[in-house]
Automatic annotation (TrEMBL):
It comes from the Bacteria. Its EC number is 4.2.1.1. This is carbonic anhydrase. Keywords: Lyase, Metal-binding, Zinc. Zn(2+) binds at C88, D90, H141, C144. The lineage of its organism: Bacteria, Pseudomonadati, Pseudomonadota, Alphaproteobacteria, Hyphomicrobiales. SMART domains: Pro_CA. Binds 1 zinc ion per subunit. GO terms for biological process: carbon utilization. It catalyses: hydrogencarbonate + H(+) = CO2 + H2O. InterPro entries: Carbonic_anhydrase, Carbonic_anhydrase_CS, Carbonic_anhydrase_sf, TAT_signal.
Length: 235
C-alpha cells in the first residue's frame, strides 16, 4: 500500500515532511516562492535534464540567460530554485553560467574542494525541505587546487598551515578511495571520486535528505566541470 496516501489523506511520511518544511520555513520568514516565468521541473530527472541542456548551451555559447535585469524586481518577492549545486569556491567555477540558469534558479553552496560539512548539509536541507529543489549536484572541476593540496599532503605526510587542514581532512577520504584504484591521473580520479563521495553524503544523510532521496522527491548526483572545454561530465 502506498505510504504517501490512504483514501486521499497524507501518510506518515507526507505529514512528517510537510510539518518539517513548515517548521523550517517559519524561522526563515516563511516559505518564499520566486516570481519567475520558468516552469518548474515535473520531476528530479527533468531538473537534471535542465542542467544538462543548460550546460550544452553554455558550451555552444548560445545562452538563454544573458539579461539578468529582466526579472530583478520579481525576484525580490522570493525564491524557488529547482536545483542545488555544491560547487568549489574556485573563481573559474560559476554554476549559473556553467548551466545557463538565471538568478534564482540555482541554490549554490560553495567551499574550496566542494565537500559537504555540517553547515553545507544544513543548507541543502533548507534548499530541499523549504525551497523545494528537486536535484542536488556536487560539482567538482579540473585543476582543483584543494584536491591537489590534499594529494600533496598525503604524499608528503604533512599538513598545510593555518586552517587549511580542515579542507584537507574533509577531502582526504575521497583521495584515499581514488588511490586504491591506482589511476594514471590521480588528480582527475580524486576529483571525480570526491564529487561522487559527497553526492552520496547528500543522498544518505538523514533524516531530511535521505528521506527525500528515498522517496524520489530529490535526486543527488555528481559531476565534474572541465574548465578548458566548459563541459560537465555527469557521473
Amino acid at each position: 500500500m502506498c505510504d504517501q496516501c490512504d483514501s486521499g489523506t497524507l501518510g506518515r511520511r507526507g505529514l512528517l515532511m510537510g510539518g518539517l518544511a513548515l517548521s523550517l520555513a517559519v524561522p526563515f520568514g516563511g516559505r518564499a516562492f520566486a516570481q519567475t516565468t520558468a516552469t518548474p521541473p515535473a520531476s528530479p530527472d527533468e531538473a537534471i535534464q535542465r542542467l544538462m541542456d543548460g550546460n550544452a548551451r553554455y558550451v555552444a555559447n548560445t545562452p538563454n540567460n544573458a539579461d539578468h535585469s529582466v526579472t530583478r524586481n520579481t525576484r525580490a518577492a522570493g525564491q524557488s530554485p529547482f536545483a542545488a549545486i555544491v560547487a568549489c569556491a574556485d573563481s573559474r567555477v560559476v554554476p549559473e553560467l556553467i548551466f545557463d540558469q538565471a538568478p534564482g534558479d540555482l541554490f549554490v553552496v560553495r567551499v574550496a574542494g566542494n565537500f559537504l560539512s555540517e553547515d553545507g548539509i544544513a543548507s541543502l536541507e533548507f534548499a530541499a525541505a523549504v525551497l523545494g529543489v528537486q536535484a542536488v549536484m556536487v560539482l567538482g572541476h579540473t585543476s582543483c587546487g584543494a584536491i591537489r593540496a590534499t594529494i600533496d599532503s598525503i604524499r608528503d605526510n604533512e599538513l598545510p598551515p593555518g586552517h587549511l587542514p580542515s579542507l584537507v581532512n574533509a577531502i582526504r577520504p575521497a583521495v584515499y578511495n581514488a588511490m586504491q584504484q591506482n589511476p594514471e591521473d590521480l588528480l582527475a580520479a580524486a576529483t571525480a571520486e570526491n564529487a561522487v563521495y559527497n553526492a552520496r553524503i547528500a543522498a544518505e544523510t538523514g533524516p531530511i535528505l535521505s528521506d527525500m532521496n528515498e522517496s524520489g522527491t530529490v535526486k543527488s548526483i555528481a559531476g565534474v566541470y572541465d574548465i578548458a572545454t566548459g563541459k560537465v561530465a555527469f557521473l
